[in-house]
Amino acid sequence: MRRFHxxxxxxxxxxxxxxxxxxxxxxxxxxxxxxxxxxxxxxALQLAFVRYLGHLAISVGLAGTSGLSADTLRCQDPFLVLxxxxxxxxxxxxxxxxxxxxxxxxxxxxxxxxxxLICALSWPLLRERVGMFRWSAIILGFCGVIIVIxxxxxxxxxxxxxxxGAAFMFALxxxxxxxxxNRVSTDTQQMYAGLVGTIILAPFALLxxxxxxxxFQWLVLCSLGFFGWAGHQLLTNAxxxxxxxxxxxxxxxxxxxxxIWSYVVFDTLPxxxxxxxxxxxxxxxxxIWARELQRG
Length: 296
Prior knowledge:
Blueprint: H1 2-39, H2 44-65, H3 78-99, H4 104-111, H5 114-126, H6 132-149, H7 159-180, H8 186-208, H9 215-241, H10 244-247, H11 253-266, H12 272-295
Helix pairs in contact: 1-3, 1-9, 1-11, 2-3, 2-8, 2-9, 3-7, 3-8, 4-7, 4-11, 4-12, 5-6, 5-7, 6-12
């Protein structure tokens, strides 16, 4: 009986790993499509608006199939739910602006300093104890970020600071997601994420709006919302089938996906120092992951 139980847990873990790999693959389409459209001249705020409008439309449509009502938006801690959505919107906007100026491999590497920020911020915001072992890993990880950014070198670009800001906003979003996990349903959080992002970005997007010039560009633009919603659904289901501390290393597949897209679509490969910085960040993240497993 125990062997059957273990096999069942193993199958669920494999399913969870497959789902997070698929989620990151969909997320990679968002960054790649956004960079491609930005290089064609479409404003970053317009791209972010369409991403959240599509997200909202799908969430409302699915909620409508089961009877949309005021109860769908009623929840505990509404302030934290709204703040979570604001942080996610800010992270998206900063990332989309940075994508216009930086290679995908650079933005994805800097964005993956977010797990380090989450670990560092969990002490003041969640009152979780962070020992010297994990603080050492956090410091190591930020050495990797400095290697990628090279603030005193000729390769430094101001948009790298936007990528770092996007990682910080995403870390705050993730901490609030963890805090609200057992209080607010995933569907309600999804609804608010789409609603808040759409409302905040609508005025800016409409003022700057530029129509794509052909049907393929329209297709890529409209797909941003779908891939955003679908990626979050896959990620949520992955966490239902396997614990977060098991899935964490597979999140780095996002860097691999974007490096491939960067070469295929934009004929760009990461330079030597970006690769070294990425490896340092990944190693630091894996040290924190191993420590979490040991403590868990």
